[in-house]
Amino acid sequence: MRVGQWGTVLKGALADVQRNHTMAFAAGLSYYFVLSLFPALIALSAVVSFLPVPNLFSQVLTLMSRFVPADSMGVVRQILHDVVNPHRGALLSFGLIGALWTASSGFAGMIEALNVAYNVPETRPYWKTRGLAVLMTFLIGGLLLVALGMMLVGPEFGAWLARILHASFLWARIWPVVRWTVSGAFIVMAVEAMYFLGPNVKQRFLHTLAGAVFSVATWLALSYALGIYFQRFANFNRTYGALGGAIALMTWLYWSSFVILLGAEINSEALQVAGDGTLELKQPPPHKVKPITATEGDIAA
Asked: Cα 150–155–156 angle (5° rounding)?
């Protein structure tokens, strides 16, 4: 697609935000994400507890605090502290399966919202979309775990890798840049996978790159801006009391959902501008049989 066409894409995406009620869908997704966030983190804590790395889950939460506003992160830590520690062993039984199933509800809601962003109907059966939501939970969760793992390994790992591979001293110097670049690439791939698998649209994986890069970059800037806003301007504790941290978390999830849907709108517009303006469904709707009228029935008789 030519560079001059991106203005048309952005203009169309902003128009679709109002036409498709994107902000209302973002509010609904924030509800689903609240239901999914804690089961997903609880399942993660149960799995990483068996890895030979001390305090790995605490390191994951510390890393999350770089992106999640402090007030929101306080609520996450408090709930996980009350739930995870007493029930760590039980989480590896049926509770872990239930947690993963609940976590997939967020992706089920995301599939519906992405269909609206792409302006396509959902023609796939429920069992297929729900199975796809579970698949996206594992796939996107795995990509994000790799990104988190790359962020967690420090400069010492780069120096150790340089010694093992007999690399030059320069490798140890550039390792922090490589580490964050690879982490960012996996986060973009996770968002791309969501745009590629979720909507009922046939498209190439590369077609989702523009919206994924936009949404990740905007989400990082937005999270930083919300952190400053919560600390210096907003005072949710004074307005909402004990619910202040929860309101901050919902606000962060709301704007995060909005940015993801805005990236989907950009992909949808880019796909239509690059093509003939129509989108091909992954599963065409079933053909409707024309009913036989009374006159036609009499003639056939």
From this structure: 105
* Tokens read off for 288: 């409707």
CB 59 within 8 A of CB 20: no
**CB of 26 within 8 A of CB of 257?**
yes
Whether residue 279 contacts residue 268, with contact meaning beta carbons closer than 8 Å, is answered with yes
Other C-beta atoms lying within 10 Å of the C-beta of residue 123:
14
Q: Please say whether the beta carbons of 198 and 114 come within 8 A.
A: yes
Contact 193, 143 (CB under 8 A): yes
DSSP 3-state assignment of 201? coil
Q: Which of 118, 110, 103 is nearest to 47 (CA)?
A: 103
**Structure token digits, residue 209:** 């790159």
pLDDT in tens, 204-242: 888 899 999 999 999 989 988 888 888 777 777 677 776
H runs (alpha helix) in 6-123: 6-19, 22-48, 56-64, 70-83, 94-117
**CA triple 44-48-51, angle to 5 deg:** 165
Q: What is the pTM of this model?
A: 0.81
- Name residues of the chain where pLDDT drops below 70: 1-4, 47-54, 56, 81-96, 98-99, 153-173, 237, 242, 275-278, 286-301
